[in-house]
Amino acid sequence: MSKKRGLSLDEKREKMLQIFYDSQDFYLLKELEKLGPKKGVISQSVKDVIQSLVDDDLVFKDKIGTSVYFWSLPSCAGNQLRNVYQKLEFDLRGSKKRMTELVEQCNDLKKGREDSDEREEALSKLKAAEQKHKELKDEMAQFADNDPAAFEAMKSAIEVAHAAANRWTDNTFTLQQWCSKNFPNAKEQLEHLYEEVGINEDFDYLELPAIPVSEVCEQEEANP
Questions:
Q1: Bridge-partner residues for 69, per DSSP?
Q2: What is the distance between the alpha carbons of residues 9 and 52, in angstroms, rounded to a whole number?
Q3: pLDDT tens digits for 111-151?
Q4: I want to staple 26 with a disulfide (CB 3.0 to 4.6 A). Which of 55, 69, 112, 141 is the partner?
């Protein structure tokens, strides 16, 4: 024997609405939870079913004192359907109007774009020009490293980095002098600490050699 199929949500909604339509009365939720099983709707799902009907304006609720009552009349469903119908009619008219406007716009755009030998020739020239533009753009990209503006920007960046490095070197020497002055008895410990962080006798200010543009370009050509 096959297992009995449970009611779908739509079927549960119809069953609960029928309770209201048959009695045209007002109910508390706990009363509906008792009446639901008689229509095949288990009491545990009555609350969710009723709430879905309230959300769709098919069932109304109101609080009277400390109790919440639910009700629905056949006329309520009729009014709801009429409202839905009117909204759909309004949307349909708007969609038809928009479609007419788009068709007219499409026809206007087609004017002057009819297939012809002149149009085909113009499109062919446009395609060739776009291809040439792409080739020139790719070619320019190959020479980007030798761009004077790029070189000047690189040169400026090197100067900024050089100044920053020497500024930190100067700060390091200043800190060493301060430590020597304030901790004269810790000379060996300080020297050992300096060695650990890479500050040794070779530590000094950096020089910024001047490299002519021509030499830079020659180096780039030799090492592409």
A1: 28, 62
A2: 9
A3: 777 777 777 888 888 899 999 999 888 887 777 666 777 77
A4: 69
